[in-house]
Amino acid sequence: MRYTINISSMLFIILSALHANAETDIERGQDLHDGNCISCHAAIYGEKGNEIYTRSNRKIDTLMGLETQLKRCKNSLGTNWPEDQILDVQHYLNSSFYHFED
Q1: Range of 40's domain?
Q2: What is this structure's pTM?
Q3: Residue 1 domain-assigned?
Q4: Which residue from 92, 101, 48 is spatially nearest to 70, judged by alpha carbons?
């Protein structure tokens, strides 16, 4: 049996591998989060704002869902975070609150 892989499938495989192996900076992720996200969350969920991540009815249930939400929030805030900074925030939130497997 012969298998063929189209270019988009190959690109997805490569990008997934790069994403999984990308080095992230948790401290930078926390700094970016605290400087950009927490004030909005605090306005909605109380003084600390971190309750958004630990509430019983949270909407994020996968690592990919977390990344998607971060991109939505980034666009809403108008921040110019490049991909590596999004990954830093994602890694910080995952290691601190979500604990999804990579």
Answers
A1: 25-98
A2: 0.73
A3: no
A4: 92
The total number of structural domains that make up the chain: 1
Quick one: tokens of 53?
A: 């991540």
| Residues 6 or more apart whose Cβ sits within 8 Å of residue 59 | 65, 69
Per-residue pLDDT tens, the chain, 102 aa: give them: 555 666 655 544 555 544 444 568 999 999 999 999 998 889 887 777 888 898 888 889 999 999 999 999 999 889 899 999 999 999 999 999 999 987
What is the identity of the amino acid at 26? I
Residue bearing tokens 């298998």 = 3
Residue 91 lies in a domain: yes
Considering the domain boundaries, does residue 6 fall inside one?
Answer: no
Residue 86 neighbours by CB under 8 Å, 6+ apart: 67, 70, 71, 74
Chain position carrying tokens 């900074």 = 85
